[in-house]
Amino acid sequence: MKAVYALITVFLILIIFFTQWYLCTVRGFCERVAILEILMMLMFAFLIGFAGSWLVSENIFLSIRMQVGKLLKDKSKLTEKLQLMERENQSARKHLAEWQQEAAMLAQGKKATEPLLVEAQTQVNTLREELERYQRRYENLKQETDSIREITSHLKNELAEQKMRAEKLQSSLLESPSEKKGEIKNPFHSRFTPSTKQAKSDLTLISGIGPAIQKKLNELGIYTFQQLSELTPEMIERITEKIKFFPDRIGRDNWIGQAAALTRVKKS
Fold this sequence. Notes:
Structural class: mainly alpha
Strand content: under 5%
Largest sheet: none
Number of helices: 7
Helix content: over 70%
Mean pLDDT: 77
Order of helices and strands: HHHHHHH
Radius of gyration: 71 Å
């Protein structure tokens, strides 16, 4: 606006100067009243033209001012965004520098850990081979265990059969004929009991057996060395209860071993 006012002032001064020069010099008519009238007419015409042009261009000026204000606001926003982007750029550069340092450290760590990685891979391969070997061994052991279980089951069946046979044998050895009149049933009478006195053995030849114990053994149906050599733990326990002598005397004096030896000598 200052430039417009200065331009108007300069224009008025030029009008006054050229009007006075034209009237006084060219026309030779240099009265001040006429000059003032002419100047006032020019000024009035100028003001009318200026006012008209100002009214016409006022909307344009307002639009231009609004656009300028908007542009200034946009400029301010862009400046703020630019400053924000600069700060973000600085932060990104800082982070980039840090990441580059971390990448360098990781590269150094990778170089340092490569031998360890190779060693670990070797150990893994070794462990895999050992695992496969142990798996094969496990399969073999499993097969052996299955076969052992089968054998054990077979042996258990055989043992059960042997126990049944032993029980039958024991029951046959311990069975005695029915009680006769005036006689006591003898649970130790066996199939080896002699039918005559000539077949009886002299049990006193066994260390630890005297005439009294021999008599008690005869009462229980035991007459020969063979019968003593075939005594079972159950039979020994019953004999001990019946005869009532020191516990474990039969085992301590080894009656069974002595009877077996005397039986072999007698047979030979």
